[in-house]
Amino acid sequence: MTHLAICPGSFDPITLGHVDVVRRARSIFDEVIIAVAHNAKKSYVFSLDQRVALARQAVHGIDGVRVEVVSGLLADFAKEREAAAIVKGLRSSRDFDDELAMSLMNRHLSGVETVFVMGDPQFSHVASSMVKDIARHGGDVTGLVPDAVATALTRTFRDGR
Ligand code: PNS
Fold first, then answer.
1. Range of the domain at 81
2. Bridge partners, residue 36, by sequence
3. HSE on the CB side for 100, CA within 13 Å?
């Protein structure tokens, strides 16, 4: 039996911190699905197609990892795929506070456990929101995101100005 993990998120855009968590999930589970969430009420810098494409480029060549879209409830998505676990990365106790209720709710809805992994401390300051703000102001995002994401950020904010 193969054990599948789901790594969910907005991935707007995917960062090297996310990739680190996905690699850690893959070291524990046989297969990993990066589940890119789409919430019609949320505004994103990158379209769903762009977020999926950038995530695919970021994990290209990592065996056993694929990218899918989750448009409904994560709990339903995880249950349908008979996932062994949802895997999330924690950078700080603040992340934990945000994640606790979500993990309990997902378990309530689906019976699927959430497993938390600690990301590499070198990425503990990396967040998609900060990366976008840096890029928006013309700053350097090298070392924070995959190269393809850095290029996409530069293009998006240059064209948007
Ligand atoms: O990267 P983010 O924005 O912190 O990820 C949040 C995400 C996508 C994991 C969360 O919003 C989610 O699970 N969305 C799917 C819809 C859903 O299941 N909502 C109820 C969560 S208890």
1. 4-124
2. 9, 69
3. 5
Probe target for ligand 1 pocket from 21, 102, 109, with the most ligand atoms within 8 Å of CB: 102
Query: Which residues are part of the catalytic machinery?
Result: 18, 42, 91, 128
Both structure tokens of 71:
């448009």
Pocket test of ligand 1: the residue of 33, 69, 74, 112 to mutate, having most ligand atoms within 8 Å of its CB, is: 74
Task: Identify whether 90 is part of a domain.
Answer: yes
Task: Say what the pTM is.
Answer: 0.97
Q: What is the CATH number of the domain that holds 33?
A: 3.40.50.620
What residues does ligand 1 touch, defined as CB less than 6 Å away?
8-10, 37, 70, 73-75, 102, 105-106
pLDDT (tens digit per residue) in 15-47: 999 999 999 999 999 999 999 999 888 999 999
The pLDDT tens digits for 87-130 are 999 999 999 999 999 999 999 999 999 999 999 999 999 999 99
The residue among 149, 90, 83, 75 whose CA lies nearest residue 123 is 90
How many domains would you assign to the chain? 1
